Amino acid sequence: MRVFLTSPWIPEEWIRAHGLEPRGIWSAEEFRRGALPLSAGLCAFAEAAVRFAGAQTDSAVIFTTSCDQLRRGFDAATLHGQRRAFLFNLPATQTPVAKQIYRADLERLGQFLLELGGSAPRPEILRREMLQADEARRRLHEAAPVPAENQVPLALVGGPLSAVDRNLFNAIATAGGCVALNATESGERSLCPAFDLNACGDPFDALVTGYFENIVDVFQRPNTRLYSWLKPRLLSRRARGIVLWHFTGCDLWRAEAQTLREVFNLPVLLLEADETAGISPRDVNRLQAFVETLK
Amino acid sequence: MNAAPRKLNLSAWDDRYEQLRRNSLREPAYGGPLRRHVEREKDFRLEQLHFDNSSAALRLWNFLLTENERLRQARASGEKIVGAMKDLGTVPVMAYSLPGVRAFYPDGAWWTPCLMECSDNLLQQAEAMGIDASFCPVRAMLPAFENGEHFPKPDLLVCSTGAVCDDFSAIAQRLEHLGHSIFWWEMPRRRPPVSGETACELPGNLSAPKIQVDCVRMELQRVGKALGELAGKKLDETLLADGIRVANRVRHLLAELRQTVYAAPAAPLPALEMLVAEMLAIHFCSDRKETVAVLEELLAEAQSRVRQNQFVVGADAARIFWVNPVADLRAMNLLEDFGGRICGTDFMFTHALDLIPENLPPLEALARAALADPMVGPTADRAARIVRECRAVRAGAVVISRIPGASHCAREGEIIREIVRQQLDIPTIEFEIPPVCDALLPTLGSRLQALMEMLKAKTQN
User: Fold this and answer.
1) A92 and B215 in contact by Cβ < 8 A?
2) Most B CBs within 10 Å: which of A106, A221, A244, as the mutation test of the B interface?
3) Which neighbouring-strand residues pair with B322?
């Protein structure tokens, strides 16, 4: 059974260790296909997740509490009896209590996965899955793009990029830029989890620590970890501007635009994803103007 | 001194005030004519509002409108000021348990653009600080912190985070980036206990797993430690238990007031005064002792009117259950102008109205009260309470006022309406109320009018 995740901070290794197949919802081909009629202020990502969950007959969707829209999206998804949806409590702080909440919710998720037909995770299986995921993340880290001489290196920062939004990379390239740092939720930033399996005897402990202590996201309070993570990367990738990708109604990212400008002293272009999937001609035009000013 | 209950505009209140004075009105230190708030504080919105004509209402309004001034006086006399943010009702109970400490909600600045009819340009200033109109009017808090012209800068800022509104969380984070240090504490999203988990009963007919209650208790312990350090005195169980008892006195009074007003055959007090009175529960309007006195007087007035069969809104008014606080206070007048009356409310802080359990260790009791926050749990829980209360007060309709830009409003109104329609088969209506709703008056008015007409036709049939 496929288990679709709405956040990279839910360990895919944990799903695999239960014998189920984790997928980022953003990577599903049928996710955000076509225009969604949205009422005022609704986030297109959250709405797409609600509709996606409602359409699933043999897959599950894991929502998270990381934002209002997803949290209440779960309420909407389960209002009509959808049983294959789960709301994972992603704490905002980094305190011991927050870690306890994270751990407890992973255990609760485990129960949910068992109810879905998953198998009880054996420590050696979990360890194997963690090692494989670590290796995959290491390889992906090595694959960071290097901009060509004539391209303007940009950082793409923000929320999740779904499959239908991938033409954003082409639009940036066509405009003369290059994504030197993909710090979206589905990009390099999501590769942060790292495990110390030697220090923790129990792989589950290592899983909890490896994820919880390495979450880098805008919803964290304070969100200093996000800025600490971005700073060296923006410097080393020589980013000359930031494209801030956010969904309509996403207060968490939108509120960071000014702080990003102030902290990194870089120009920031806001690109807003709405009910229409993909990049609009208006966005392309704005991107072109943005890159042109940076040349 | 007693006059038949009715609503007065500000000019009529000038005369009424003189009349009361001639009749030996006794006022607290913050008393005075309402007009002075327009002249001194530029609270221009008062000129558009209609107020209850009782001396109890005068005291309530003066209490509300002098909060910043009273906070400054407290600061000048050496008291410590805590800015509690977002939890709406929990941290102030702790803060007021300590001697020499006062807590207020900077969140309350969201009403400043309304009261000052945007003349202070707080919303424009917030936009210049990176928080534009796509955010809830609570963004007014940001420039208010920076310019220091409204509330005094708190000695300690405490903000709940986690399962809270994104608008607020994002604005508070921006505030921290601007150099205002914040003590964050985690509020998990409340969920029902699952099989095998120990369930804890929460106020408001809710329950949560023990692990969540324990987490919130531990977080509040951290908050308590910080408050104790600020006060120079440990916040021990005895102090906290006393604090809870006084908070419950306020909640008892409010429960009685709500019961008296909402269950009466007609409204003995207007909707606007009831909104303000309910707001006192969350942080005692920066004076716990005075809150009790204000509510006692208001309750006595309401009870006296009911006994004498005197009302400000007639028995023929449609019974409306109101959901969410209004960014423009005038909306509460508007409802009554179009033939409605409030018979129940959920202003987003029902957990601050419920009694805090006194048979539990104080911190545990507060953790349970905090977890009962309607905004941190499933929308269906909030809707269930609305349904329950609508049944109890025989509400004819539910009005949901959307808060402009508020991230939670985008979805929850829709869910609440669906559940209310399914379970009660009464009409629901939802509209957005901006901080100054004058431009929308024709639209709002016609929507309310249509609702009232429909309800009246239903009653006649």
Assistant:
1) no
2) A221
3) B345, B399
